[in-house]
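MOLECULE: protein
FOLLOWS: sequence and fold
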Amino acid sequence: MNERRPDRRAFVKSVALGMPLLGGSPAADTQRASRIDPARRGPLKISCNLYSFNEPLTRKSMTLDDVLAFCSDVGFDAVDPTGYYFPGYPAAPPDSYIYALKRKAFRLGLDISGTGVRNDFSLADPIHRKEEIDLVKTWIDVAAKLDAPILRIFSGLRVQPELMREEVTEYMLEAIDECVAYGAKRGVMLGLQNHADFIETADHMLELLNRINSDWFAANLDIGSFRTGDPYAQIAQVAPQAATWQIKEKLFVNGKETETDLGKIMQIVRQSGYRGYLPIETLGKGDPRQKVPVFYEKVRTALLAS
């Protein structure tokens, strides 16, 4: 039995509190898209990073199954379920749970574009750092069972005053390299996420990306986490090395939170030659059941126009 709910356009209209759809009518969308060279548009699809539903998931007013059904109704091509929301995290969930979730996504017409874990490779204590490496390896195994092609990881927190950045970089790279090698054996890429922590700038990001020599390592480009200078310029620097993204409603221009210019972002995506999923992530106050469909439509419209 097909679990996809009917008439998603009506659904999106109802959850958006009567707001007009930003994409216009289906006929208008088709007409606009037909004027764009298909070779330029490329095979880009929209995914939902399930951190968007952090509050209802952590409060248990929604389950992962509920969120998958919601995302299917909105019209997403895929979901990116962060590991925090699986039962037993940071331990791996039972295989039965992983496979049931994978089946649920399949029956709803959703791909699993990736998953993520919270790790910290900036820890000075090698024993604690080994625990972080083991955590990432555990979730590489989970990703492989989900058929998720990429696992999002972090670098670590900011450097402590008593440590030198160069020293932390060296042992951080050793930890990442070990995890990347393990991911290659399991068929899972690792996507390094900039998160305004150890990685504050595009140069910080590129140093780590360029020093790991593996096709199984790339950027998870979080557009909202460059907090200084011109974020669009920094996003463009990293974009050629992106294997997945986090498209957010707002970013920081010279340290000031500003609404994202999605037209600029899509131009950067196209110019980088990226092919794949564009996961969106909504943050801040408000019900994600209202916010997510509205932002989905904005991103979809910008994608069609790019």
Remarks:
- DSSP finds twelve helices and eleven strands in the chain.
- Residues 1-6, 11-39 have pLDDT under 50 and may be disordered.
- The first helix runs from residue 8 to 15.
